[in-house]
TrEMBL record:
GO biological process: one example: arabinan catabolic process
Main localization category: secreted
InterPro entries: BXL, Fn3-like, GH, Glyco_hydro_3_C, Glyco_hydro_3_C_sf, Glyco_hydro_3_N, Glyco_hydro_3_N_sf, Ig-like_fold
Entry annotated with the keyword Signal: yes
UniProt superkingdom: Eukaryota
Signal peptide feature range: 1-21
Compartment annotation: Secreted
Domain (Fibronectin type III-like): residue spans on this chain: 684-753
PANTHER family noted in UniProt: BETA-D-XYLOSIDASE 2-RELATED (PTHR42721:SF45), SUGAR HYDROLASE-RELATED (PTHR42721)
A Pfam family recorded for this sequence: Glyco_hydro_3
GO MF annotation, one: xylan 1,4-beta-xylosidase activity
Record-given protein name: Fibronectin type III-like domain-containing protein
Cellular compartments per GO CC: extracellular region
Length: 768
């Protein structure tokens, strides 16, 4: 009781401290301190002046050396102008992280809420959840900034496509579908940055542009890799999430990647940076290199003959900020050698300083300013922890449930054997690019909240190199009413700079699972933690394994979420955001082969559900529930006419170029009735696919919409989806041109199908 009182008093004291705007803030004013008479009246400090004018005024006061000192992530102070130094590099992939030097945990900020890893959260297919997580993360980020222990520029999210199942960083991504990745990017960015286009709560960054999805495989690493990518794949796969991040999310930054694309380093390619990101998409923000990328293109890729040329090429290509020291070391000499103009440096600073001003960093003291009230009491709150739990509930995927073995019953299953190397996982549950979590509930702790547990790890770790602990695991299973095996991977198997060579479970994990399943007297449930897919065909086929859950990396509340689903307190509704391939898929498929479409001459299969039609363990979008839903398409047009501009808009009557179509307001509205015909309330994830008319350009099918809807037992709900014809019913030809195929498009929702005919028209848009 004394300990409880002490904890309560400590919490009250913390609340009082954090509620005081005077005491909570430890940060010195970054710039334009009103108490500094020498700088407070300078034009760039006047909030009434438009930001572009303030930026021009500030740049006009800087020497070349001072300008160059601001080109790196550790930007120098300019004392004569009252400007402090600033660390640009902070991370917030799924919670405020301490991976970058801009964030330091400690003192009254010992931790931050750690949400599920992105691949798990995306399995919810819930865009409003993604944005809500972003808002919470930015609240905690602002609080830490106010306390002097965090930055305001966060190099997240990672929106690369999970092209190859072996990629160690697949866990960070929104999966294999470009539209899902783009919608995730836009939603999470809106949550982080807020909805004021002129001002920023924090500045997000979509990375790594582009065609980056190999870290270290079979002797090839990201620093040396030249991704040979077709214009078709660039346009319809790799660039889609970044374009949506800029155009729909209004992101404040894009990060270019380490690799080359078709022989040119991405951070020195003006076609990618200046032409595409800046001019075509209209980025309102800055472009930053991945860390040491500029140094890599000179030292490792030998793309230029001198370091000054590397600095000049990068800045002229459109790079604004270098994560690393390279530009700081070589840009002055590049100007002196006439490889670069000082105005090119100015252009880079316009973009970075504008973002800092949009963040309010040149508005003086934070007290009384927007977000200035946030402090320690706004980090790791019960509401934030509750959202982390809800995200895990929504992201966990039920892969198998033979004979409705799940949920378990607290009356019939009073003793649970909890076995496996991830059964007591804590840090494993938050994946990579995480910070220090507020606290953890491991799987065995979560299950203990429902039943008596017998805990045996079975393997010392996920590598499971021997069977020394198998006998004890067998005995635990024999003595329990049900057995839960928590197996899978961790960061020692898949991580940044660590790609896999196999899709199978490591070591003797399969042997342990089969032995325990044979020994168990009750139902056996397999729970998998992983970022990438695993070939568990043996478990899917084994009738002794009653059910399988994929938990991804479920975050700090993962153990509670797993237990809630096992015992039915939560009804699973997650869907896989990536295809689970069999091990044989990797035969003759190097990670370095970038083609998304099959290459029959090389016996290369297609990649992702859009272009691969071979056998799978589980398909993209697979996920079961404890209840059953049916679909019925209540209303949808059968014909949509596309108004075109000019006689050359069609090719043999087979397609219309998107640039020739009148796209405004051109959408396909589909009304779907979703009925819960099962025995439990549940949330249904409705995925809408389009199958375009056949042709060499077209994918087999592509996701065009998704909605998540809660439906009570016996209830029917009507869901309306609006499918933008030009964005989502178009395909890309070999030249990289986006076209709308003319003819019958199949719309597929579960077992329901509808055909809509798209027709070219010079008379306007007609729907019937």
């Amino acid at each position: 009781m004394i300990l409880h009182k002490m904890a309560f008093l400590a919490a009250v004291l913390l609340f009082l401290i954090s509620s005081s705007s005077v005491r909570v803030h430890c940060r010195e004013t970054f710039a334009c301190d009103t108490k500094d008479a020498a700088t407070a009246t300078l034009r760039f400090c006047q909030m009434s002046v438009p930001i572009p004018e303030r930026v021009r005024d500030l740049i006009g006061r800087l020497t070349l050396a001072e300008k160059v000192s601001l080109l790196g992530n550790t930007a120098a102070a300019i004392p004569r102008l009252g400007i402090k130094g600033y660390e640009w590099w902070s991370e917030a992939l799924h919670g405020v992280s301490n991976v970058g030097p801009g964030t330091k945990f400690g003192g009254v900020y010992p931790a931050a809420t750690s949400f599920p890893q992105v691949i798990t959260t995306v399995a919810s297919f819930n865009a409003s959840l993604w944005e809500s997580i972003g808002r919470v993360v930015s609240n905690e980020a602002r609080a830490m900034y106010n306390g002097g222990v965090g930055g305001l520029t966060y190099w997240s999210p990672n929106v690369n496509i999970l092209r190859d199942p072996r990629w160690g960083r697949g866990q960070e991504t929104p999966g294999e579908d470009p539209v899902v990745a783009g919608k995730y990017a836009a939603a999470y960015v809106r949550g982080l940055q807020g909805n004021d286009r002129s001002r920023l709560k924090v500045a997000a960054c979509c990375k790594h542009f582009t065609a980056y999805d190999l870290d270290n495989w079979n002797g090839v690493d990201r620093f040396h890799f030249n991704a040979k990518v077709s214009k078709q794949d660039i346009e319809d796969t790799f660039d889609v999430p970044f374009r949506m991040c800029v155009k729909e999310g209004n992101v404040a930054s894009i990060m270019c990647s380490y690799n080359q694309v078709n022989g040119v380093p991405t951070c020195a390619d003006p076609n990618l940076l200046k032409k595409t990101i800046r001019n075509q998409w209209g980025l309102n923000g800055y472009i930053v290199s991945d860390c040491d990328s500029v140094g890599v293109l000179y030292d490792t890729q030998h793309y230029t003959g001198t370091p000054e040329e590397a600095a000049a090429d990068s800045i002229k290509a459109g790079l604004d900020l270098d994560c690393g020291p390279f530009l700081g070391a070589h840009t002055v000499d590049a100007v002196k050698k006439n490889l670069l103009r000082e105005s090119d440096v100015d252009n880079a600073l316009v973009n970075t300083l504008t973002v800092q001003m949009r963040l309010g960093m040149f508005d003086g003291d934070i007290v009384g300013k927007p977000y200035g009230h946030l402090g320690p009491a706004h980090v790791c709150t019960p509401v934030h922890k509750g959202l982390a739990l809800e995200a895990a509930h929504q992201g966990i995927v039920l892969l198998k449930n033979r004979g409705s073995s799940l949920p378990l019953s607290q009356h019939r299953h009073r003793t649970i054997a909890v076995i496996g190397p991830n059964s007591d996982a804590t840090v494993t549950m938050i994946g990579n690019y995480a910070g220090i979590a507020c606290g953890y509930t491991s799987p065995v702790q979560g299950i203990t909240g429902y039943a008596r547990t017998i805990h045996q790890k079975g393997c010392a770790d996920v590598h499971c190199m021997d069977d020394r602990l198998f006998n004890a695991a067998d005995e635990a299973a024999r003595g329990a009413d049900a057995t839960v095996l928590v197996m899978g991977l961790d960061q020692s198997i898949e991580a940044e700079f660590k790609d896999r060579n196999s899709l199978l479970l490591p070591g003797k994990q399969r042997e342990l699972i089969s032995r325990v399943a044979k020994a168990s007297k009750g139902p056996v449930i397999l729970v998998l933690m992983s970022g990438g897919p695993i070939d568990i065909s043996f478990a899917e086929k084994d009738r002794r394994i009653s059910a399988i859950l994929w938990a991804g990396y479920p975050g700090q509340e993962g153990g509670t979420a797993i237990a809630d689903i096992l015992f039915g307190s939560a009804n699973p509704g997650g869907k896989l955001p990536m295809t689970w391939y069999p091990q044989d898929y990797l035969t003759n498929l190097p990670m370095t082969e970038m083609s998304m479409r099959p290459v029959h001459s090389k016996q290369i299969p297609g990649r992702t559900y859009r272009f691969y039609d071979g056998p799978v363990v589980y398909p993209f979008g697979h996920g079961l529930s404890y209840t059953r839903f049916t679909h019925s398409i209540a209303d949808a047009p059968k014909v949509i006419a596309i108004a075109v501009r000019g006689r050359n808009s069609t090719v043999s009557g087979k397609s219309v170029r998107v640039t020739h179509a009148r796209c405004n307001g051109l959408s396909l509205g589909v009304h779907v009735d979703v009925t819960n015909v099962g025995s439990r309330d549940g949330t249904h994830t409705m995925l809408v696919f389009s199958a375009p008319p056949g042709g060499e350009w077209a994918p087999k099918k592509q996701l065009v919409a998704f909605e998540r809807v809660h439906v009570a037992v016996g209830e029917k709900k009507r869901v309306q989806v609006n499918i933008h014809v030009c964005k989502y019913l178009s395909v890309v030809d070999r030249a990289g041109n986006r076209r709308i195929p003319i003819g019958d498009h199949g719309i597929h929702i579960g077992d329901e199908s509808h055909t809509v005919s798209l027709q070219a028209s010079t008379l306007g848009v007609i729907k019937s």
